[in-house]
Specification:
five-stranded parallel β-sheet; two-stranded parallel ribbon; Rossmann fold; alpha/beta; globular; about 325 residues; Helicase, Ruva Protein, domain 3; 13 strands
Length: about 325
């Protein structure tokens, strides 16, 4: 038992060092958004997917590209448009005249990091093509299943205030995003730095990788060794159960949401250099992991009680366990 703890500590030390290196690299182009960058990288280590939802021009796509540039792995960018076809995402079988046989041409989803820009501009049919990829990390075309690489992460962006020419994300797809992130406007001091750096050219041009796919995969494995006490697991379930019975919600958190919250809490603890999860980790992640999956009632919408407010109330109300290791 002691040997296992020692090995875990070493692995998590390496993880914390690698995480800090990637985080510092991303923050070279994303000024003043330390917590946003951390959350995005926590989702990566939790083997999840990230939905970045905010108004135009606050750096949604820049954050996604900076994460992709910081990791020396395969990266594909997809501009979602109404005429984008499911085969453009997953791939298609094409008849090869020379071989007299069908040959599979992989789509944009075959990459370690897939950046989906304005994902809500694609048709529901194309959006649905992402469901199998995001949940099972595989693609099935013409009855043949192809496994995706590891790590695999979808970073999608969307504009929540523009609805013309857009299609709301299906609830099944929203539920597959581990967390939703809002960038927010930068502080005046950070915006002043941005004018100096971004005004002279694209800072992404000088951003190089500081890690690779194999290292990130090892970091993910180390994250899985983080201990979660039974009391903390029950706390996660209690939070999810409270959303299912809340009078302001007509759709609560799914069991998948519970699992995503636990995985994210493990990654959050690991990035702090801890090999155990605290209730504080769960509380810090409750809103970004749960809020985008919930549907408010009509009465709650009229009263302008959004799901973020409901999750905050639930976190305040549900008893916190006294649990450490």
């Amino acid at each position: 038992m002691a040997r296992r703890t020692t090995r875990t500590t070493v692995d998590l030390d390496t993880l914390a060092t690698g995480f800090g290196r990637i985080r510092a690299n991303v923050e070279q182009v994303i000024e003043g958004k330390t917590e946003a960058v951390r959350l995005a990288l926590v989702v990566l280590l939790a083997e999840g997917h990230l939905l970045i939802e905010d108004v135009p021009g606050v750096g949604k796509t820049m954050l996604a590209k900076a994460i992709a540039r910081s990791i020396d792995c395969s990266v594909r960018r997809v501009q979602f448009t109404p005429d984008l076809l499911p085969s453009d995402v997953t791939g298609v079988s094409i008849f090869n005249q020379e071989r007299q046989d069908f040959e599979f041409k992989p789509g944009a989803i075959f990459a370690n990091i897939v950046v989906g820009d304005e994902i809500n501009r694609a048709s529901p049919k194309t959006q649905s093509a992402m469901l199998e990829c995001m949940e099972e990390r595989q693609v099935t075309v013409d009855g043949v299943t192809y496994d995706l690489g590891r790590p695999f992460m979808v970073i999608a962006t969307q504009n929540p205030i523009e609805h013309e020419g857009t299609y709301p994300l299906p609830e099944a797809q929203r539920d597959r995003f581990t967390a939703r992130l809002s960038m927010g406007y930068p502080a005046p001091s950070a915006e002043l730095v941005m004018l100096d750096t971004h005004g002279m050219g694209d800072p992404l041009d000088s951003l190089g990788p500081v890690s690779d796919a194999e290292t990130v995969a090892e970091m993910i494995n180390a994250t899985r060794t983080v201990h979660v006490a039974d009391a903390v697991k029950k706390y996660v379930i209690d939070l999810a159960t409270a959303t299912r019975t809340h009078p302001d919600l007509r759709l609560g958190a799914s069991p998948r949401a519970t699992l995503h919250l636990l995985r994210a809490a493990r990654a959050y603890a690991a990035t702090d250099g801890r090999d155990y999860v605290l209730p504080d980790d769960v509380q810090a992640l409750a809103e970004p992991v749960l809020a985008h999956r919930l549907l408010p009632t009509a009465e709650a919408q009229i009263a302008r009680r959004d799901t973020e407010l409901v999750v905050a109330e639930i976190v305040d109300r549900v008893p916190v366990p006294n649990a450490g290791r």
